Amino acid sequence: MSLKVLFNLNTSLYIRRQNILSSRYFASKTEKDVIVSDEKSIYESAEETPIYDSEQQEKNDELEKKRNKSRLNPNHRNILFGRRPYNESIEWFHNTVKYKKRMLGRYGMKAVEVPVGFAWPTPEEVEDMKEYERVAYPYSIQEEWNRIEEKNRKEAEAIRAREADISQKMAKLDKWINDLNTRLAKKEADMLEAKKNKERLIEEVRDQLGYGVSVNDEKFKAVMAEKEKEQKKKLKMAKKKLKEEKILAKMNKVPENGENQTTVSLNEPIK
């Protein structure tokens, strides 16, 4: 028999003997002893508190730092996880009541180190708020409601007046369009008449100088200017004569009541 076989046989016998001894030892314990030992182990485990040395704490901090892959600033990281940005006061306004109220409203009571009673207004602040409301809102609810109703009524009246004015103007729209068309037609007729008049003057000048003369000739232009001057003079005389006739007709007109006959001078403009 080889050494290897002997070694394996001795090892198996040793393991079998240890199993038998352990089974007899645990079997000799009573059920009560087992329960007591279990409760004792539970209490001991509950009362145990893990104690870390400084090196282990530093390792944990370093590990937590390596886990942070966001590259955010500490204050931004705190905001990301719903915590107040700064654990200690950095700026002067971090110690103000207004800032602490903001932190309290956003992150809860754990975000402030002082009792939350600081958020309540002081008696002086209450009086200031009452004074502000008295000045800013001097009217009662009923008075303010009446003012709103009066304002709405005036706005409604203004809208109705505006709509009525638009309706009246729309009714006159056809008349205005006709008047505009009449003025445009008159202006077009005057332009056509002026064109015909100029053509007539050109024909008269050509009859006088000959048809071979160009309209750009200086002699032609001089005679044309003289003809236009004579025509303007005739028109002026005709207007003056018409004006005198209107004045005479107005002077000869007798009022219906027969009193205060109107006297009109020759220099009075005709409307």
Written account of the structure:
Residues 25-32, 42-48 and 256-271 have low confidence and may be disordered. Helices cover 70% and strands 0% of the residues. The chain is elongated. The chain has nine helices and no strands. Among the domains are: 69-120, no CATH class; 141-247, no CATH class. The protein has helices at 3-27, 31-47, 54-67, 74-80, 97-107, 123-136, 141-171, 173-209, 218-252. The protein has 271 residues and is mainly α.
Question: The biggest beta sheet, please?
Answer: none
Strand content: under 5%
CA(first)-CA(last) distance: 156 Å
Q: How confident is the prediction overall: mean pLDDT?
A: 78
Protein name: Large ribosomal subunit protein mL64
InterPro entries: Ribosomal_mL64 (IPR018472), Ribosomal_mL64_sf (IPR043035)
Keywords: Cell cycle, Coiled coil, Mitochondrion, Nucleus, Ribonucleoprotein, Ribosomal protein
Biased composition (Polar residues): 258-271
Furnish the topology, listing elements before pairings.
Elements: H1 3-27, H2 31-47, H3 54-67, H4 74-80, H5 97-107, H6 123-136, H7 141-171, H8 173-209, H9 218-252
Helix pairs in contact: 8-9
What labels describe this entry?
271 residues; mainly alpha
Provide a brief overview of the structure.
The chain is mainly α.
